[in-house]
Amino acid sequence: MKNTQIFGLHPVIEAIEAGKTIDKIFIQKGLSGTLFTELNTLISQQKLPCSYVPVEKLQRLTRGNHQGVVALLSPVEFVPLEELVLSTIESGKVPLLLILDHLSDVRNIGAIIRTAECTGVSGIILPKQGSASIGEDMVKTSAGAIFNIPLCKVDNLIDTIYYLQGSGIKVIGATEKASSLLYQLNLTEPLAIVMGAEDTGISKGVLKVLDERAKLPIQGEISSLNVSVACGAFLYEVVRQRLNGQ
User: Residue limits of the RNA 2-O ribose methyltransferase substrate binding domain (predicted)?
Assistant: First the structure.
């Protein structure tokens, strides 16, 4: 399973206008012209994730005549946030969502998706900008679970958290900066868990709007766990509490 790759100004413009699910667009730095302006307008209107890169990057991505533009089509479809929340609430299960705050390692995200599917997560929310592209490695690491769990890409994580809170879903963050241990929280109510980036953790703006923060007890010398391992610990504590009625 690979991303479908398209390149060239006309093909990429046509793909966007046709409503294809685009995971990432790479544009050569310094590109200009009428078609580039048209492409840039579409990217802005639809808030598509894009990066401006040196021509060498594009040449590594494709051997074709890229004309300064390469786009990766996602192997999965994304669900709108409102649709995800509504279907989750209407399912009759206690909502459990995951928010991945700018994770960049495809294997970490793939491993998280696999664990999320095993623990009954209702859906996974990612930012459109700053997340790893969904491709072959992520699909493999997820062991195919990526096709069994709804994924949602959003423009702004803070606005998304406010929306979830307004929908009756408590949002907690997994962070070593917390004063409470995970096991001290009630995780049986409607819940969204935020996992932070591998190197920087949860972003400052997101930290400010959380309902609660929680951490895992660390017994060794290393101060933090791999994010996919930490996520697994959080999700299985949710499962434990919900099975036992806390």
Answer: 5-79
